[in-house]
Amino acid sequence: MELQFSSNLGDGPSDTKFGFSVLCFQPEGGDPPTPPAGTSCADFNLLEPGTLAEGLGAVHPNLNISGAGTIVAIAEGVEPKLYSGPNYPGFITNVGTAEFGGFSDVAQIHDYAFSFSPGMAVSYFSINMLDYGDFNPIGATEHNVALVGYDKFGFEVARDTLSFTSDGNMTPDDELWNTGDATTAVGNPGNYIFTVSGASMSRIELEFSTNLGVGPSDTKFGFSILCFEPEAPPPQPPAGSMCADFNLLEPGTSAEGLGTVHPNLNISGAGNVVAIAEGQEPKLYTGPNIPG
Predict the structure, then answer these.
(1) Last-in-domain residue among 230, 253, 282
(2) Pairing of strands 84-85, 92-93
(3) Residues of the chain with pLDDT under 50
(4) Residue 196 lies in a domain
(5) Potential cystine with 116: which of 69, 85, 120, 258 (Cβ 3.0-4.6 Å)?
């Protein structure tokens, strides 16, 4: 870092009597970011490095990881080596995964999907991608990685996209040699934290693409610090309350009158009030609106 002074008269300060204070700095590649309060985080250190990290409950009771490749747990400084860093002067196997461990695909397909226990949805999901961008074997020049949250109907709820360009060389000659390394500052391609927030996300996917097509441009990278927040359940009726059960009636039959759906409840109206059921006629409304 340098302080550089100049004026209309040339280089150098115009004032000679001044000073400095409060000098602070943050070392690059410091401690991993702390997940927000209230989230649940997967602990890949529960598994031996190299063992399968797929399936419900493998690294968290409510998390299911799946993909087309072979997704395994990884650990810093321990084989199998799925990536390494820093690029200069030395190499640490799977650097950046020390706190919670991590995972990657030994088949290098890098197809990842995340779902949850039956009936569970999440309102927040984050994951730290490490060492992406400093290796480009396909020669792409435009690179995109997206974390996308979908609801149970398959509709997109939220998306966080990382996009960057490169010179197309297998080993980048530009700044990506540094910013694509796992030890770079948070926010660069090599140390990027994806975050999606939204209602009722039941499936999360990582989607890779380049100017050459679908799929990742880098094949040697990994993930760590996977955290999510389960969505709050619907509010429950107050203790002692009574609920009407319209499933007691055949869909389409009248729901009016005292005792029809509850002994102490009378429903009346100027129209024709009938019981309805999801997925059955009569159709009084539909959803979601797209595609219908």
Answers:
(1) 230
(2) antiparallel
(3) 29-30, 292
(4) yes
(5) 120
Provide the 8-state DSSP code for 246. G
- Distance, in Å, from the CA atom of 198 to the CA atom of 145, rounded to the nearest integer, reads 19
In a shared domain, residues 186 and 260:
no
Tell me which H or E stretch contains 19. none
Q: Residue 292: its pLDDT value, please?
A: 47
Instruction: Specify whether 111 is located in the same domain as 245.
Output: no
Q: Rounded to an integer, what distance in angstroms lies between the CA atom of residue 68 and that of residue 212?
A: 20
Looking at residue 62, what DSSP letter applies? T
Domain that holds residue 106: 40-230
Task: Report whether the peptide linkage leading into residue 288 is cis, meaning its omega lies within 30 degrees of zero.
Answer: yes
Report the pLDDT value the prediction gives residue 269, as an integer from 0 to 100: 86
Question: Same domain, yes or no, for 191 and 88?
Answer: yes
Residues 187 and 195: their CA atoms lie apart, in Å, by 12
Are the C-beta atoms of residues 154 and 204 closer than 8 Å to each other?
no
Distance CA 241, CA 265 (A): 13
Please tell me whether residues 246 and 225 are part of one structural domain. no
Q: Answer whether residue 125 is part of any domain.
A: yes
Whether 1 maps to a domain, the answer reads no
